[in-house]
Amino acid sequence: MKTCASLLLLSLGLAAPTAAQVPGLNIDLRGGVNVTDLGDAPDGTDADSEFGWFVGGDVRFGQFFFLQPGLYYQHQTLDLDDNSGTSDGIGVSSIMIPLQVGIDVDLKIIGAEVGIGPTVTFNTSVGDNAFGLEEGDLNGTRVGGLLSAKVHVAFLGGFVGYQFDVTDAFKGVGSGGFNQWMFGLGVNF
Questions:
Q1: N or C: which end of the chain has fewer CB within 10 A?
Q2: What is the pLDDT of residue 46?
Q3: In this structure, CATH architecture of domain 2-188
Q4: What is the pLDDT of residue 14?
């Protein structure tokens, strides 16, 4: 898990000096926390939001109007309770790939942007849990969307996003998708 996140940051970091030389091309690296909930808990269970984390970044093409693919490694956590009294946290690690379009207002020292677009998420692992849920019990590929806003001063920036899945999180139980708020800090090149 740590190796995947480290390789992602290293890849984006190595590309950053090139981005600084190309007009209209920017790289944003960021990390932060997420708060995940479940659209509908499977029958007989309740799901509560928990904190997780993410690392990754975006490559932005364009200046005022932009196209922005991204790559994020994330760990989403839920607390599940069932009718028998079993309660445990479920941790799902995944790679999320958003593709956003939006508007960027960059005044060089300060700037802001808003974006919207689809996401595809690939589960990489599910942590040990009291329910015996494994990676095969969840939909391995989830489709959804991302709404985001960023503000930066010089090369440091803040990020907030709402990512939602339209694909059920669990296979065959009508669970609804994962929904998460993302809050992060990062650097812009």
A1: N
A2: 81
A3: Beta Barrel (2.40)
A4: 53
Distance CA 28, CA 89 (A): 31
Compute how many other C-beta atoms are within 10 angstroms of the C-beta atom of residue 49: 16
Give SS3 for 167.
coil
> What's the length of the chain?
189
Q: pLDDT digit string (tens) for 65-94?
A: 999 999 999 999 988 888 788 888 889 999
Token pair listed for 58: 């975006």
Residue 132 has what DSSP assignment? -
Q: Cα angle at 116 between 113 and 119, to 5 degrees?
A: 130
Q: How far does CA 16 lie from the centroid of its chain?
A: 20
**Ranges in the chain, pLDDT < 70:** 1-21, 23, 174
Q: Which residue, among 183, 180, 182, 181, has the nearest Cα to 38 in the 3D structure?
A: 180
Domain residue extents for the chain:
2-188
C-beta of residue 55 within 8 angstroms of C-beta of residue 92: no
Could you give the C-alpha distances from 157 to 51, 130, 181, 187, 188, in angstroms and in order? Answer: 21, 39, 17, 6, 7
Tell me if 138 sits within 8 A of 152, measured CB to CB: no
Q: Both tokens of residue 137?
A: 């019990």
CA 105 to chain centre: 23
Listed residue (55, 53, 44, 49) closest to 11, CA to CA:
55
